[in-house]
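Why does this matter for the project? Reviewers at the last site visit asked to see concrete outputs rather than summary tables. In response, this paragraph embeds two records directly. Each consists of the residue sequence and, immediately after it, the corresponding structure tokens. Nothing has been edited or filtered.
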Amino acid sequence: MDVESKSYFVIINPTSGNGSSKKSWPKIKSLLEKHNFSFQFAFTSHSKHSIALVHQAVKQNIKNIISVGGDGTLHNIVNGIMTQNDVPSLEINLGVIPIGTGNDWIKTHNIPLDFEAAIKIIKNGVLATQDIGKIVIQNSSKPPVFFNNLAGVGFDGFVVSKIEKYKHIGTLAYLYGTLVSLFSFKNFESKITTNSGDISGKTLMVLIGLCKFSGGGMQLTKNPDPFDGLLDITIAQDFNKIEIIKNLAKLFNGTITNYKKVISLKTKSVSIKINPNNAPYIQADGELIGTGNIEVSIVAKAFSFYC
């Protein structure tokens, strides 16, 4: 089926890339028309608006979605796909035209930043299917949150809470946020349970990876593979501030997982219990989702995208 006979729903986050999405939309719209796409489009007006827009599109029997935005936009669209109840999630295909601060998910799948090149990938119609992570916050009325890239508890969530005001400096925002966070974050007590047993103690952060990059290009888990049906866990134990500073470069080149205070493992599910007296932030794909004890599981081969 070619693009002219398919219907697409394009979701644009006008704030992505410090407003670049909104400015670039006329050019992107023109390119979609040039390549004969039949599409409707909508701009998001608030952070979770993408979820409702996906539900609306599926109700209209539109099963091809295009994300124009960054990792946060993609995260919310994925949550829209995973929480609609009309069709199996695999029947909904997502294309990505990336405009954002980190653009981390696309790095794993080699989706280009160039608008027309990204559109040609969607037009070519080649699909891949990756795993999705599911987070349930215990003793909470909040619904489950799904993630397509990486989730974490602790220091990385604290960094996410700091970077919003620095996003105008691009990917350097993550590095700046890390340095700012060093002086106020306190390690927390955790008990992490997987099929390999329990690991307890003071913790800097726990990372749960599907894809390779996060935080503007950091590589925080050892063997992430979005197609293997497993979560890739990194437990960074009781780092002090000097150790964090000394290991900053290792966060970007992936060798942090070799450090003596880092444990790496693979699992289908993980339970993380936190001391409530010092409960750190939880982030999923760079979006803050709350605090508390969590259960994380894999939803194998749940997400279909153009690549």
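We now turn to the second protein, recorded in exactly the same manner.
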Amino acid sequence: MSYLSDSYLDCLIDLLERIKNEETENLERAATLIAEAVQNGKRIFGFGCTHSSLPIQDLVYRAGGLILINPIYGPGIDSLNVRPAKITSSIERLSGYAQILLDNYPIGNGDVLILVSVSGRNAVPVEMAKIASERGIKVIGVTSYEYTTNVKSRHQSGKKMCDFADVVLDNKVPKGDAIVEIESFPVKFTPASGVTSIALLQTLVTLVIEDLIKRGIEPPVCIAANVDGSEEHNTRIWKEYSDRVFYM
């Protein structure tokens, strides 16, 4: 490998080590929120805008993962297939859009919402967290503390997404997300938040499954479709949790 590619991987490893060493308590608190919600018959949802939607999508209908993560999709910001792509940056700054989304999904008091926003500054994720909290929904925020504390809010309250979260998981990336630099080029490059945010959330899923087992509850884990016997197993748990799975 080249010096720069080695540098990128080394930086990622350092960030993942920091998550391992610094985020254990927050991850355990978040896992408890979700496990309690599952035990009490509540529902789990996840949301992020454009690239921040990708860590959520990695949890949905995922081999080895919980079947209970329901994605909230916002037209215009739910994926990267919008054209022109830059319109997504304008949409996620729109006040009022988060309430429209929450009003049209079966999420309410006692449910859990996982929110991903690396900067945590734009109106949609800020309002999503604020309104959810006001409605009695437990909010788990995934953001970068270094990033969000070094930018101004784009919401009229002046607050960030993390200000309304019950638990905040720090993905550790720097302001601007990029982590590679070289003297001959003035701009940092290659982002890290996709890797660290997914690692945080898959670690969270692992802790939730462990917590449910300790509670004597069979975790509703999806088996990969290409494994023999998976269809019978998955059909059984989808039926058992049909009142809490909305993406099928």
